[in-house]
Amino acid sequence: MSGSPRNFGGLPADQTDRRTARFLVLPVPFEESVSFGGGTGRGPAAVIEASRQVELWDEELLAETCEEGIHTLPAFRPKARGEKYLKELARESARLIREGKILVSLGGEHSITPALVEGVRTKYPKLSVFQIDAHADLREEYEGREWSHACAMKRVLDQGCRIAQAGIRNYSSGEVALVNRGRVATSFAHETRTAADLKKAVERSLKHLTEDVYVTVDIDGLDPALVPGTGTPEPGGLSWYEALEFLRPVFARKNVVAFDVVEVAPLRGSSVSQFVAAKLAYRMMGYASRA
User: How far is it, in rounded angstroms, from Cα 122 to Cα 95?
Assistant: First the structure.
């Protein structure tokens, strides 16, 4: 597939027409607050490149999701940096969601999510967020930045959104007051290792979410044995199938209007992380198509 178009999926023109496409893919190569391993700025391009090798026939859904239409936008690269970049991203997200399509954003670090959510909320004011992540990301600030990737979900919470979290296995003492309190429902990775416990966690997440949902997947929410290419890997985490057990009913029973996959940091000599991220994004498109 080396000669295929360099859009998500390597799709031909008849499946990428923006006017008829159901999905808009927005690459957001933002990397300014990483606190350990770098490389998330290269994530979107690597995921799109890997997506050209993903089989378009979905073996679970028994369909080719690309027939719904997937239009890949140019990477979002305004001249602004830091908070100004994120404010421009929020405006771009608001503009794109008005097209009536499902916005699929590829990061980049997790700090892009609050900006994307802010934009989507201009059309869906009662939006809630389902998060797969290793980290709670509920810090008030980190290393002097309130817009850090470690504060992403606190900024979402500040917008008034309800949040359901899955795969969590790392949070600070300062986040204790928010984890599993009020508008946050947290499922810890170590508490969902049996089928019965996983089912309970899924149902609790669904009950907590509103009808309109934004899904954010920090790729470090999956086991690092599956996705080693991420900036802040944590032992444990969700398997591929455990992640799908959470995602499948969210898409089936809620109105998922946008989602992102973030924190892919490609490793030299390995394509496994970006391939997993690409297949996961395509699978979520498939779930949205069936909803």
Answer: 9
